[in-house]
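Example S7 (structure tokens).
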């Protein structure tokens, strides 16, 4: 056996092949689903300081079985074509799993955001957007980017402004050319937390499965489960925060670039996030112990391990050290295919990235719909529902002879705001998608893990679209 580690792209391809044999689909159709349809490599100059720097960047459209294509833009010094192709492929399967009507895409710009000023990053982002516009690789009905590692609301606002500048107001739906925008610039409430919240909903649903928990020697329910988080960025911080505050999870360790801290009695995540924001580090957080080897996060005994940083963090050379019972892939591709074989043999359950971190694209879909409708969610029905609820409360008070306080009435009668509807839609999506994957796993006796079940679920949906289009009659 070769000692070479499987790359991220190779892992995605191997996982695809592993699942494809369970679908019964013709070879030509699976080959089409597997292939990246369009890869745009670009090099462009940007003025940095007193000179110019040539920036390497990519945009990959993996599948056009549905339009537009959809996927984030990553800013990282590690960006390469294979990585972007792998991420685009995952987006196709991810969208299919959560029934979001997009094809998969992804973008990458090979820069380290820490090495540039905000003004320089703006120039890079705007020039990248211009390149996408020139090749028709962006637009509300063509290809819709979103934030990913190293990007956020700020970059999405720059992309929107650049797109609208070039289109000259000729597109009425131009705000839908990108998602993850600031709320005051056609964004949607709940988008920033969406991926982390989706991770919580997915883990909660799995932990509610009594037979599954019994196999692992755990009690049903997510409350009281111990968790280790690797990566306290957007996804890791929100997943930890929501798991702790809404699920009662005990987070006993957190790993970041600067090191790993631990407290067996639990770390207070809101305080830790505030501490890191003020000091720039998690190290020195009160009532925590710093591990001598920061990479030892992988060896901590826990119920749930949450890799929430970059891909290929759990590999063939360290997989045997994992002592968690459940791994929730909050990041994209944190486990290589070689490592997964080792983990599954150890009886560790893996909740795969293509399902678990699909909260981001789900709420991006809601934002896109909002942009196309040109109306905030809840605007039409909030007051109507609130007034109807107040009428119902008044009727109950008359019938019972009891009176509620003004505060109680307000809490019961309150109509749903945009963020309430977004969270409700996200929860509905994550719950329904979990049971689709779970049913595939239980009905197909030859499928023994959640990733293969997720792939099979996705491939059948994508294949159905191709056959409906008449491409493969």
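Recovered sequence:
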């Amino acid at each position: 056996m070769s000692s070479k580690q499987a790359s991220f792209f190779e892992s995605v391809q191997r996982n695809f092949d592993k699942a494809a044999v369970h679908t019964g689909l013709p070879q030509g159709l699976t080959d089409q689903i597997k292939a990246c349809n369009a890869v745009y490599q670009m090099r462009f100059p940007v003025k940095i300081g007193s000179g110019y720097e040539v920036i390497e960047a990519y945009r990959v459209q993996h599948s056009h079985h549905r339009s537009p294509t959809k996927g984030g833009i990553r800013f990282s010094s590690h960006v390469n074509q294979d990585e972007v192709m792998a991420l685009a492929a995952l987006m196709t399967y991810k969208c299919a799993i959560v029934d979001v009507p997009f094809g998969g895409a992804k973008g990458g710009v090979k820069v380290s955001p820490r090495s540039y000023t905000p003004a320089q990053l703006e120039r890079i982002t705007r020039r990248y957007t211009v390149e996408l516009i020139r090749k028709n690789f962006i637009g509300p009905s063509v290809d819709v980017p979103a934030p990913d590692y190293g990007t956020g609301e700020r970059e999405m606002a720059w992309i929107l402004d650049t797109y609208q500048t070039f289109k000259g107001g000729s597109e009425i739906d131009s705000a839908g050319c990108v998602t993850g925008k600031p709320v005051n610039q056609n964004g949607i409430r709940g988008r920033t937390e969406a991926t982390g919240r989706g991770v919580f909903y997915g883990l909660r649903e799995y932990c509610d499965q009594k037979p599954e928990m019994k196999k692992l020697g755990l009690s049903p329910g997510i409350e009281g489960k111990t968790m280790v988080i690797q990566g306290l960025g957007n996804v890791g911080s929100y997943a930890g925060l929501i798991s702790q505050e809404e699920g009662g999870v005990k987070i006993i360790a957190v790993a970041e670039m600067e090191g790993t801290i631990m407290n067996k009695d639990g770390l207070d995540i809101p305080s830790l996030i505030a501490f890191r924001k003020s000091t720039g580090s998690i190290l020195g957080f009160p009532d925590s112990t710093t591990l001598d080897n920061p990479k030892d996060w992988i060896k901590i005994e826990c119920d749930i391990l949450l890799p929430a940083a970059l891909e290929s963090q759990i590999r063939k050379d360290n997989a045997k050290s994992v002592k968690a019972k459940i791994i929730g892939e909050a990041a994209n591709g944190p486990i290589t295919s070689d490592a997964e074989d080792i983990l599954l043999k150890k009886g560790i359950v893996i909740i795969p990235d293509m399902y678990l971190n699909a909260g981001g694209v789900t709420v991006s879909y809601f934002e896109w719909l909002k942009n196309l409708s040109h109306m905030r969610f809840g605007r039409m029905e909030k007051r109507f529902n609130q007034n109807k609820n107040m009428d119902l409360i008044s009727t109950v008070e008359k019938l019972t002879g009891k009176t509620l306080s003004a505060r109680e009435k307000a809490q019961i009668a309150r109509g749903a705001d945009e963020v309430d509807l977004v969270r409700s839609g996200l929860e509905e999506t994550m719950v329904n998608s979990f049971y689709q994957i779970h049913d595939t796993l239980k009905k197909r006796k030859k499928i023994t893990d959640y990733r293969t079940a997720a792939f099979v679920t996705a491939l059948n949906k994508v294949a159905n679209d191709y056959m409906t289009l008449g491409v493969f009659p």
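Notes on this example. The radius of gyration is 23 Å.
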